[in-house]
Amino acid sequence: MLAIWLALLALFGVLALTIGGAFDDTFTIPGSSSGRALEMLSVTFPEAADASATIVVGAPDGTRIDSDQARQAMESYVDFLDSDLDFVKGVQLPYSDYVKGLVSDDGSHALVRVLVEGSTSTFTDEQRAELTDAAQKITELLPGSTVAVGGDVFSVEMPHISVVDGLGVLVAIIVLTAVLGLLAAFMPIVSALIGVGIAVCIVMIAAGITTVSSTALILVVMLCLAVGIDYSLFIISRHRDQLLKGMDAQESAARAVATSGSAVVFAGLTVIIALVGLSIVGLPFLSVMGMFTAVGVGIEVCLALTLLPALLGLLGDRLRPGARKARRLENRRPGRLARWWVRVVTRWPLVTVLIVVVGLGTLALPARNIEMALPNSGRSSVGAPDRVAFDLVSREFGIGFNGPLVITGSIVESNDPMAILDGMRAEVEAMDGVEMVAAAVPNANADTAMIQVIPTTGPDDPATADLVHNLRNQHQHWLDEYGVDTAVTGLVAVQIDITAKLGAALLPFGLFVVGLSLILLMMAFRSIVVPIKAAVGYLLSVLAAFGLVTVVFNDGVGASLINLSEPGPIISFLPIILMGILFGLAMDYEVFLTSRMREEYMHGNRSWIEDGFVHSSKVVIAAALIMVSVFIFFVPTGIGAIKPIALGLALGVAIDAFLVRMTLGPALMKLAGSRVWWLPAWLDRRLPVIDVEGEALAHQTKLAAWPSSDDASAIHAERLLAASGDRVLFSNLDISVDPGELLVIEGDRSARLALMFGLSGRARFSDGEAKVLGHVLPEEGSLVRTRAPLLLATTADPAGELDCGKGGIVFVPALDELPRAVLSALSEALAVPIDKDAPPTTWVLGVGPGTDPESYLPGDYRVLRLSPQLAALAGGVVR
């Protein structure tokens, strides 16, 4: 198994190196007016829609950039850039009769726009370096001048993995060593890193086929590393506990995967569903991000279920604690601390609930004023080339020059396009928030107009978004007044539209994940209260994390602690990413804590909250510490979208694990008491069953030697109960049938059907234990069904069903209802002499009350009478 996974890692690694592509951080929104207008602009005004760089040229001290000497130097400079660089499509001089504002008011600086081939994301680092070097030519042509290079193609700041990011793995090793021991500590790390490697390679391969953002890569690394370690921790912890009790190492590994592995599958599926749910927003870059992160989580789940057991097999009994260490583990301090803590929070549960809810509500308040935007050069690292140029443009020209807006419109039917453009220019310049109209020109074919608007505010300022909305509100007026069907576009307008769509998607996405949590947890715990408690806790965690991230990134509180140079808007897709990932992680902790409490409750333990908490808290604490450490070490060196996402995840996990699941959760459980496990009967019947903690396996192993180790009964059942609504069909029913016997069930038709459908593995009893053909019901019902056919009046192939039951059990719920042909085939099968060399066939036949079985059956048989009136005597057998 280890060789298979390493081979897969090598295979995907080779594919990534050979067909992997570059990442594309261009954010688009299909179908939006700004997106459609930008696409049209690339056709009608390609020079306006092309990717470009901005060169800010400063005149020598005491001179003006528009002097004759400077003009001659700039013209030579433009010719040099246009001819010397093969990726340059054109260069725009700052001295234009059609474009205003390219020379600063004091004449000290000028803007040169360089149009390049490709897009912002396909412009390579080598081309950036080549353009930066070529831009310095102006200092030779115009001695004493200065130059700064920035613009769109320089605004891409690719995330990277640093040594600091890897410190989270070191902390994880320390935590794992404390929980599992040194030898076992490296297994989760190895498993998680192999999963991260494969997932990263898949993302790189996908980048060569479709558009994938660099943020997706870092998100995959962060989340896969965290969940990979945690999922392995859950399974190994169960394995170690079982070894401590003396279980065989191989059996223990199998039991650990079958029990905790079930919880890992459930937890992984919740994360995957939430990540795939990001596609409901309708933004391709976000859908791709969620999809590939979900693939990575799926790989980690597969590793936990396959590679981890293989590693457990390699180490075998070497993971078993010695006698002295076992005694020390039994009395370990974390258990005492956990018991003390749960007693504190449940002593006055209402006080605990109020403190936590009020506290988290207070932390969430700043989220009301959260400011979001997509990245731009103004948020790049201080000292980055594009940031230097951005700040210089802001100082010398005005911050609005870093994010111009573009109004486009069709003028194909106009007889005087310049008059229309002059009129629209005057109206736009009179609007609040407009610094100037830099250009208002038709294209070469005179069929499309373009108006370039310079706002008074920056690209990510809320006032710029207001200006975009105001410009769009003029659409009908300009259509009526000038006959021009306008659209507002440009990179800034596209980013504003994306931010608005992401904000609008928060509520439906929140309803999706909360509704999903209610359904999943209701199926897992058969409870109404538990899902509501979990969903409310999740919302508190998410909102508190939003509030803290707002305080840090929008307001700058504690900015120096996370290496944040200055406050600013939060990346627009952080809230929805945070909601999706925290949902999955919150459900992980809810499952591992609540499932153990439910197990203790079902075993009749009156201290089920306390004991369940103590037994599961160690793993949850370790898992949360690992998650937080992995995420938090991406914060100091994180750039672009990674820093706020990493901080939000670290804070969200810490709040959810320690304040919500381990403080608020037990207190709410204490308040609700046993009512926490209530579920309406009608809903219980309709909900599918999810075995989160391997209860089915525990039931099978418990009855493996029941009723005795040498029992060979075809059917053995005790205390069977079947009910339909409020009606009890039978109760306290004991049955024992040896192989080859014939048993007749006499009673109400509904009771007979319920009994036989249950014993044949096709339905569940309301209560009781049953073992049929050596298989425990209901867990092994599928195995029973293959050897226990049901012969009904509607059976199409009675001979085939009887043949299938040879050596097994044939169930006939209504003998007196069988057609003559089916009854004849049954009689022939019953009359066949027993073959001593073949396993005998057992027969269970049902008749209505008062029916004489002798008219149907040859030989000896037993009669078991079932009726509500004789429920207490249902175990009586009459010869």
UniProtKB/TrEMBL annotation:
UniProt keyword list: Cell membrane, Membrane, Transmembrane, Transmembrane helix
Descriptive protein name: MMPL family transporter
Pfam families per record: MMPL (PF03176)
Membrane topology category: Multi-pass membrane protein
Coiled coil: none
Transmembrane segments annotated in the record for this chain: 166-185, 192-210, 216-236, 257-286, 292-319, 340-365, 502-523, 535-553, 573-592, 613-635, 641-660
Record flagged with keyword Membrane: yes
Domain SSD: 180-314
Cellular localisation: Cell membrane
Top-level taxon of the source organism: Bacteria
UniProt-listed Gene3D superfamilies: Multidrug efflux transporter AcrB transmembrane domain
Organism: Brooklawnia propionicigenes
PROSITE patterns assigned to the protein according to its UniProt record, in alphabetical order: SSD (PS50156)
InterPro entries, alphabetized: MMPL_dom, Mycobact_MmpL, SSD
Major localisation: membrane
Keyword Transmembrane helix: yes
